[in-house]
Amino acid sequence: MSKRKKTWMQEHVSDPFVKKANADGWRSRASFKLLELLDKEDLVQPGMVVVDLGAAPGGWSQVVSQRMGGDGLVIAVDLLEMSELPAVKVIRGDFGEQETLDVIESELTNRAVDLVISDMAPNISGVKSLDQARWLNLAELALEFAQNYVRRGGGIVIKCFEGEGSQIFFESVKSVFRKVHRRKPQASRDRSREFFIVGLNKID
After folding, report:
1. Reduced to 3 DSSP states, what percent helix, strand and coil does the chain have, rounded to the nearest 5?
2. Under DSSP, is residue 181 helix (H, G, I), strand (E, B) or coil?
3. How many CB atoms lie within 10 A of CB 24?
């Protein structure tokens, strides 16, 4: 194991959010990021239709499903295999491809989406400019999905990374949603460039 990997593993196992996730039964420490975002904004209510893009291992879908008390529809989409969750429909595929979109639409049964959530991040190459470009592509795809499927008045939560293009993307979200916030949850590590954009009240 490389020194860098060993350092990450040591930090991971000692991380208080990792320990709390294990103790509380959450699938990942990322659950606490969404929990804090939901506490700041009234994003989830029973009966909603929520699509989780890049959902594996399922921490965010798990949070939303529990917040809705099983009353609603959560569609979790990922290229990676993900074990089942109560009241969550898991779709394995690329949401950027029509075949996967067709499956999503069949699950929606003509219902509009209330909220899109995305904790997606690219595979890290170590080349900052390349990684930033990959993130920006994922973020733009998620926003495009929200533009096409989220109902008027609906919302989005999307992971972002500081760097080239992040402010331009923030402005793009503002062109789609009337109210847009930038958030850095406590569970986001201090050294991480990640932040989250919360868009509320979709314009059209």
Report:
1. 40, 25, 35
2. strand
3. 9
Cα-based angle 111, 112, 116 (whole degrees, multiple of 5): 125
Q: What is the predicted pLDDT for the residue at 9? A: 43
| Prediction pTM value | 0.88
Residue in 40, 159, 174, 202 annotated catalytic: 159
Distance from C-alpha of 159 to C-alpha of 64, rounded to nearest angstrom:
16
Taking the C-alpha atoms of 33, 36, 38 and 40 in order, what is their torsion angle to the nearest 10 degrees?
Answer: -140
Strand locations in the chain, DSSP E? 49-53, 73-78, 88-92, 113-118, 150-161, 177-183, 194-202
Which residue has better confidence, 148 or 192?
148
For residues 188 and 173, give the distance between their C-alpha atoms in angstroms, rounded to a whole number.
21
What class, spelled out in words, does domain 27-202 have in CATH? alpha beta
Distance CA 65, CA 75 (A): 10
Tell me if residue 159 is catalytic: yes
